TrEMBL record:
Function: Hormone receptor primarily expressed in adrenal cortex that plays a key role in regulating adrenocortical function. Upon corticotropin (ACTH) binding, facilitates the release of adrenal glucocorticoids, including cortisol and corticosterone. In addition, MC2R is required for fetal and neonatal adrenal gland development. Mechanistically, activates adenylate cyclase (cAMP), the MAPK cascade as well as the cAMP-dependent protein kinase A pathway leading to steroidogenic factor 1/NR5A1-mediated transcriptional activation.
Name this polypeptide is given: Adrenocorticotropic hormone receptor
Main location per the UniProt record: membrane
Organism of derivation: Salvator merianae (Argentine black and white tegu)
Family: Belongs to the G-protein coupled receptor 1 family.
């Protein structure tokens, strides 16, 4: 799943351009690099603002916000990878300052591809632990602070990033191997089912306990806060799927049906899929700010200090 993959896709589209024109009538979509670059910079700045806000507000120094910061870092990596890719392309290829030798370009591709995989895996696992954190908050509210301590949260993050680094290296060196693609596809589906089941279970619990909550006003505010967190993670996951699934589908088509005219037609919109990934990093901080009053107040203090 490489930026190399971007080169491979372009080659496929060029080689089969006449076929796609005659059979599918699909023109290759072109998105200006300036648009990619602008969205990427915006994503970096927004997520950096989230990290600064959480760091400055001591009320936000808890496991849930540690996990949100982890998601922000993952989003930043996704934006940063495209920023670096664009800069490398402009400096070393477009302006001809450096000859675009194949070995040099491949090394740069490996670097930005590694960051891309870190972003993808980091986002998936961040959403998973945020969902699990909300689950523990609702089902084990009284034991939450004993179960999910800041120290355990940090240990979880270390484990996540060790796996992400290993997965990134595996994809860089074995991206053309079908077992590698199948493994990451299965992993993605498993995490999707995990998050979906947690959210469905929490919503069903909320519905079944609605009358009990109404009869317990002292706990209703707490329960509403918890369910608001569930809605937030659901929205975040929905946005993640909308932004990443088109690209992941593209990767599968590149591996399994590169000659099929219908697959070629879908691959012609590859730049749009890349734009969606960039948009994910821009949308997530907006969701935090809209759904979380404490974080929203912190943003206001940062802007009006």
């Amino acid at each position: 799943m490489k930026s190399d993959c971007l080169s491979e896709t372009k080659n496929l589209l060029e080689n089969h351009n006449d076929i796609s024109a005659n059979i599918t009538d699909c023109a290759v979509v072109v998105v200006p690099e300036e648009i990619f670059f602008t969205i990427a910079i915006l994503g970096i700045l927004e997520n950096l603002l989230v990290l600064i806000a959480v760091g400055k507000n001591k009320n936000l120094h808890c496991p849930m916000y540690i996990f949100i910061c982890n998601l922000a870092v993952s989003d930043m990596l996704g934006s940063l990878y495209k920023t670096l890719e664009t800069i490398f392309y402009i400096i070393f290829c477009k302006t001809r300052i450096h000859t675009c030798q194949e070995a040099f370009v491949r090394t740069l591709d490996d670097i930005v591809d590694f960051m891309f995989i870190l972003s993808l895996l980091g986002s998936i696992f961040s959403l998973s632990v945020i969902a699990a954190d909300r689950y523990i908050t609702i089902f084990y509210a009284l034991q939450y602070h004993n179960i999910m301590t800041p120290k355990r949260a940090l240990v979880i993050l270390v484990i996540i990033w060790v796996f992400c680094v290993g997965g990134g290296l595996a994809m860089v060196f074995f991206s053309y191997e079908i077992p590698t693609v199948v493994f990451f596809t299965v992993l993605f589906c498993f995490m999707f089912i995990f998050i979906l089941c947690l959210n469905i279970h929490m919503f069903l619990l909320a519905r079944s306990h609605a009358k009990k909550i109404a009869l317990q006003p002292t706990n209703s505010a707490h329960q509403r806060t918890n369910m608001k967190g569930v809605v937030t993670i659901t929205v975040l996951f929905g946005v993640f799927l909308c932004c990443w699934v088109p690209f992941l589908l593209h990767m599968l088509l590149v591996q399994f049906c590169p000659e099929n005219p219908y697959c070629i037609c879908y691959m012609s919109i590859f730049p749009i899929n890349g734009t969606l990934i960039m948009c994910n990093a821009v949308i997530d901080p907006v969701i935090y700010a809209f759904r979380n009053p404490e974080l929203r107040r912190t943003f206001k203090r940062l802007f009006y200090c």
